[in-house]
Write a structure and sequence with these properties.
This protein has ten helices and twelve strands. The protein is α+β, with helices and mostly antiparallel strands. It has two domains: 61 residues, 3-Layer(aba) Sandwich (D-Maltodextrin-Binding Protein, domain 2), CATH 3.40.190; 210 residues, Roll (Dipeptide-binding Protein, domain 3), CATH 3.10.105. Strands 1, 2, 3, 4, 5, 6, 7 and 8 form an eight-stranded mixed β-sheet that branches. Helix 9 runs antiparallel to helix 10.
Length: 277
Amino acid sequence: MAELETGEADIIYPVNPNDVNRIEQHLGTKVLKSPSSNLTYLGFNTTKEPFNDPLVRQAIAKAIDQEGIINGILNGMALPAKGPLAPTVFGYDDQFSAAKKDVEEAKALLDEAGYPNGFETTIVSNDTRAFMDIAVFVQQELQAIGIDVQVETVETSTFLELAGNGDTEMFVSSWGTVTLDADYGLYPMFHSENGGFPGNRTFFANEELDDLLERARKETDEATRLELYKDAQQIIVDEVPLVFLYHSELLAGLGEQVEGFWQYPSSIFYMRDAVKR
């Protein structure tokens, strides 16, 4: 930030959402905002009780204020996630609606699942500031439905090991569909053969979903692929192996003389046309 403000740096990335106003108000600097292909989510280890019950997962999804996370933690610099794919990704379907907080419905779902008084659990995040804040936010939200959450913060390498080995109950994580194709956004994260380190950190397994994802990656007709991915996303939305939180906005700080710089949704820099006037 200091280097950008003094002119020593012409471009910085990433910018913390809470620092956007500082850059925009500083004479000689500006912020470039670009849509991403990323999904930040609250994951469940679906092999562990009580998270093997879709009713419990649905209850937790209903207890979390998605807009509260975006506005309170990210300064509004994100897009509410309706499903597993961002709008920048081929296969995205806008038929879904962002989850709305409903504490009474969440309590009713927990009661139906056999947990009228809630339960105790843990949520793990890496030591990224936003993820730590999200974990604490979720902890506070779930108190309202009787779920007592202990927050554990670890280094990223430790988090990846814990999640890859299935040594989590709930966790905060993200996935970037860097190819901008639904196959990379869904197959690694939700196909049963990819449980753990390959990307399916929720260890979610559904035979119908596996079949749809396998057929879609072999299909050459785009319209047919879209239909297959639409059906796949419906299963994921219904079964809730994770809570869709937001698609991040790429934030780069620029000197006001920089022109022609842009970012691909996967966050890759394109410098070919960048000039300093």
